[in-house]
């Protein structure tokens, strides 16, 4: 598969100092990355492993980690090496094809109504979740902590796959995702999932840096300030700046429509989506 020049990584967009640091990291990790390439090639098979595209994605990966580590070469090398080992140890590169994880995710979606729902105006894949509907006791009875973490990894890998597929379709690189988290109905018992939430945030910051483009938190309940105080200390400051908390109906619709075209937005958030089979109720509720 040839990689379109329009979404190939262009090192010339970096300044001279950034180019030197990028090249240093690339050269430092060349041997380790080639070994990882061999691992993925054997794991996925030649029909799924596209050499040029994988090389292009690796360059974007380096760039994301450099930005996240404030262009510190040593920290970036360490970060990327840890990411590679984590992916191997947790079989992340095959998780989307694992039948047991797929089955678990099917049940998870019944516990929390959610869907990938089109794209934002910035062409980011848009994920919508009615987080406030979560049945915490049901989740804790039917999932172990490790299984919930596995579901989160599956979700992030699927998000990255959508971004890569959309890049091919557009002929331009899409690396970040967007989300709408609807907290209507959320109760304080969600605190029982705090440790799992903290672990998910750690995974996001360390193994998927700079992947979040925008996050809209809508319909925050009265208990939200207390819940926010519990988790905000674990969120990277850069990530925190990408989170927009929308408290009122008109404010929610106005802000969302600044970032998402109306036909890509479910009607309950002010959109005009008619493409879903269940429209205007775009998210299925079990």
From TrEMBL:
SMART domains attached to this UniProt entry: SEC14
CDD domains from the UniProt entry: SEC14
Pfam families linked: CRAL_TRIO
UniProt xrefs under Gene3D superfamilies: CRAL-TRIO lipid binding domain
Residues in CRAL-TRIO domain copies: 104-277
Entry-linked InterPro entries: CRAL-TRIO_dom (IPR001251), CRAL-TRIO_dom_sf (IPR036865), CRAL/TRIO_N_dom_sf (IPR036273), PI/PC_transfer (IPR051026)
Coiled-coil residue spans: none
The protein, known as: CRAL-TRIO domain-containing protein
Organism: Adineta ricciae (Rotifer)
